[in-house]
């Protein structure tokens, strides 16, 4: 997984929870995949109390939407702009990441927008 711009190996649910809880200026950006393959991947952007979760089944999935929200992207203060329509509360986003970590499949806790 990547937490902001730092690569981390996470082996337990406790380590995952610790990484998810880490914030810089109220936000974080995590990319989580298997240690053996970059896809599928789940991408979590948090700016408390909101979050955006993006599931990538394979490389090359992209899309554009309006109504933007800025999230922290790196420990250096870089920001990334995400579609506001994709916002969910941070608790739901964390539950999605935990479900993905358990199953390696797209979480079922939210409705997904096909991009």
Walkthrough of the structure:
The protein has 115 residues and is α+β, with helices and mostly antiparallel strands. It has one domain. Helix content is 20%, strand content 33%. It has helices at residues 13-21, 90-103; strands spanning 2-3, 6-7, 27-33, 41-47, 50-56, 68-72, 79-83, 87-89. Strands 2-1-3-4-5-8 form a six-stranded antiparallel β-sheet, covered by helices on one side. The protein has a two-stranded antiparallel ribbon with strand order 6-7. Strand 4 (41-47) and strand 5 (50-56) form a beta hairpin. The model has no long low-confidence stretch (mean pLDDT 79).
Percent range for helical residues? 10-25%
pLDDT < 50 stretches? none
What is the global morphology?
Answer: globular
Largest sheet, in brief, is: 6 strands, antiparallel
Multimeric state: single chain
Q: Tell me how many strands there are.
A: 8
Question: Using only CA atoms, what is the Rg?
Answer: 13 Å
Number of helices: 2
Mean pLDDT: 79
User: In whole angstroms, how far apart are the ends?
Assistant: 23 Å
How many domains, as an integer? 1
């Amino acid at each position: 997984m990547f937490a902001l711009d730092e690569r981390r190996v996470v082996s337990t649910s406790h380590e995952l929870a610790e990484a998810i809880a880490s914030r810089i200026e109220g936000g974080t950006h995590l990319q989580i995949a298997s240690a053996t393959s970059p896809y599928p991947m789940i991408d979590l952007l948090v700016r408390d109390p909101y979050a955006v979760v993006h599931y990538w089944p394979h490389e090359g999935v992209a899309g554009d939407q309006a109504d933007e929200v800025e999230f922290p992207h790196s420990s250096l203060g870089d920001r990334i702009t995400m579609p506001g329509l994709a916002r969910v509360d941070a608790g739901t986003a964390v539950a999605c990441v935990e479900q993905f970590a358990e199953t390696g499949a797209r979480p079922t806790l939210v409705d997904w927008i096909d991009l």
